[in-house]
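[recover] target loaded
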């Protein structure tokens, strides 16, 4: 039996308590950042902001507050900070039709806090 145990190596790892506390603080900050979601509507530049927001609010089962609405190239984009609203907006994708009867696609991605 003694020969079998000689081939094994036992390693003990000691962690610096301050680095563990720093890591925990970083995780808390990351959780705060994870609460933001970027909502992107491809081709959204075709739509008036008021019409688009009213359509989204009408179809979305959870109220939301858009932050930093803007157009990037041909997309409409804004941010929200509520995970349940983000999920509800994702469900609305392809359920809103524009005046030409085209369905509107909505992309929802986790994001860092908007500027």
């Amino acid at each position: 039996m003694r020969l079998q145990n000689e081939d094994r190596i036992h390693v003990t790892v000691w962690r610096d308590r301050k680095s563990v506390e720093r890591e925990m603080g970083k995780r808390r900050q990351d959780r705060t950042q994870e609460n933001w979601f970027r909502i992107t509507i491809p081709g959204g530049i075709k739509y008036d902001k008021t019409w688009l927001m009213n359509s989204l609010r009408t179809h979305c089962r959870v109220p939301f507050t858009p932050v930093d609405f803007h157009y990037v190239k041909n997309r409409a984009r804004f941010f929200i900070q509520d995970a349940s609203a983000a999920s509800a907006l994702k469900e609305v994708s392809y359920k809103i039709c524009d005046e030409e009867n085209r369905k509107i696609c909505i992309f929802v991605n986790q994001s860092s806090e908007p500027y």
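[recover] notes: The beta strands are 36-41, 67-72, 75-80, 107-111.
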